Amino acid sequence: MPAQPWCQREGMALLTDLYELTMVAGFWKEQRASQRVCFEYFFRRLPPNAGFAVAAGLGPFLQYLEHLRFSRDDLEYLATLGLFDDAFLAYLRDFRPTLTIRAVPEGTLVFPHEPILQVEGSVLEAQLVETALLNTLNYQTLIATKAARICLAAEGEPVMEFGLRRAHGPDGGLSGSRAAYIGGCSSTSNVLAGKVYGIPVSGTHAHSWVMSFPSELEAFRAFARNYPDRCVLLVDTYDTLGSGVPNAIAVFKEMHAKGQMARAAIRLDSGDLAKLSKMAHRMMTEAGLKDPLIVASNDLDEDLIADLKRQGARINAWGVGTHLITSNDCPALSGVYKLVAVAEGETWRPKIKISSNIEKATDPGRKHPVRYYDAQNHPLGDVLYTNGEPIARHGEIEGRRRSDPHVRALIRDAVRSENLFETCFERGERTMEPAPLPDIRARALRNIAALPDEFKRLRNPEIYRVMLSEAVGRDKAALLENPDVA
């Protein structure tokens, strides 16, 4: 049987919170199951010190929808809970999703409070998919964003994702490898991710390889003999500069004498990486090994990589594991899924969730984000327009502040606009072919390259502007005063 991620398997309908099912059953029993609604997925805060996020996870979520079925085992288990009557369970037996999904493509840069995905359909179906949607998009967006920051710190040098052994379970490893590749990583150590997603795989050897041989030199020779075209030697098992690098140099010179291997390559996994890399580089070049590849690992993150570069480290490839795959400084993205509109006949009534914290008040109505660009193709800001509202295309773009919709806001000098939403699922059917993962990664890299540097700083990045359109601003202002009117 071919390897499959969870989202392609049958029998995943119970990957949800219990309250989703009790609400769904309640809607059904109250004869409200067919009420048409619109939900939107967005996040409230970026990870610490981040100026942007990279949208990821849409593809797996759509695969989940395609395979969403309640199996006999699922229904038998639900019956044991004593919460659901036989008629409702019979309804679930034949359930098939008929939702419409609009979303920004994976790899698009996204910002707080703007809709990333919109779900439209019956309240029963829209409520049912909430947990799986949040689980999928929150994690993959978080890891893609972390990977992008690490790759920015590496300044174009390859970043290899080595996180599987520290990931939060098997799917955390598989989904995390996918997201890290979208965010810019060049390869993964995760062989299953290589098989399932076509991500390039990479790796060297462990200290145990060296320790299992009578000597370090014999271990290096054996590895070179078996993998002459991919020979990266781990040099810090015993004494990095006293034995590891000299023994590696000896093996590389032996290989070159045989006409093998174009480039000498070592990995450093402990110690003062800046000092060791500079010393190792000097030793290798003085031995006649030109342009050596020096890979560093050992609990790296974007801050440590940036610091090593400031110290002049001679590292030119990076293996990053724990801090990437777990997003160590931010364990969860603040993504939420909120009801924004309810259908009344052929019209839609905007809905708002009000909080004492104005930042947590939602933006009402069925919306789509439009991005504006300057003459150099740099993004200037986004405006959330209600569906059907005329869109300003260029020039001075007027809108309202999100946090205070009574106050006007402006985007100046826009030369073009881009509607970020695409309809990817309509009435239960895909409307476009799944995007190849390399294309998603390429989109992310293009988006990041176009973003002005002030938003990409590792500390204190500029805040990207997200505004409400005039119509959305008016609706929000009115509903803040009286949530029962639109």
Principal-axes geometry comes out as globular
The neighbouring-strand order within the major sheet is: 13-12-1-5-3-19-20
Number-wise, the strands total 21
Structural class by helix and strand composition: alpha/beta
Range of helix content? 25-40%
- Sheet having the most strands: 7 strands, antiparallel
Q: How large, in whole angstroms, is the Cα Rg?
A: 26 Å
**Share of residues in strands:** 15-25%
- Span between N and C termini? 53 Å
Q: Count every helix, treating DSSP H or I runs of 4 or more residues as helices.
A: 16
Q: What's the rounded overall pLDDT mean? A: 95
Give start-end ranges of low-pLDDT stretches. Answer: none
In words, what does this structure look like?
The chain is of the alpha/beta class and 486 residues long. Helix content is 37%, strand content 20%. The chain is built from 16 helices and 21 strands. It has a seven-stranded antiparallel beta sheet. A six-stranded parallel beta sheet has the order 7-6-11-10-9-8. β6, α7 and β7 form a beta-alpha-beta unit. The N and C termini lie far apart (53 Å). The relative contact order is 0.14.
Task: Summarize the structure in short.
37% of the residues lie in helices and 20% in strands. It is an alpha/beta fold and 486 residues long. The strands form five sheets. Strands 13-12-1-5-3-19-20 form a seven-stranded antiparallel sheet.
Features:
486 residues, seven-stranded antiparallel beta sheet, 16 helices, six-stranded parallel beta sheet, alpha/beta
Helix and strand topology:
Elements: H1 18-29, E1 36-43, E2 53-54, H2 58-66, H3 72-80, H4 86-93, E3 100-103, E4 109-110, E5 117-122, H5 123-128, H6 130-154, E6 159-161, H7 169-183, E7 187-188, H8 191-197, H9 207-211, H10 216-226, E8 233-234, H11 240-257, E9 265-268, H12 273-286, E10 293-296, H13 302-310, E11 317-320, H14 322-325, E12 335-344, E13 347-350, E14 367-373, E15 379-386, E16 395-400, E17 408-414, E18 416-419, E19 422-426, E20 429-430, H15 437-450, E21 466-468, H16 470-481
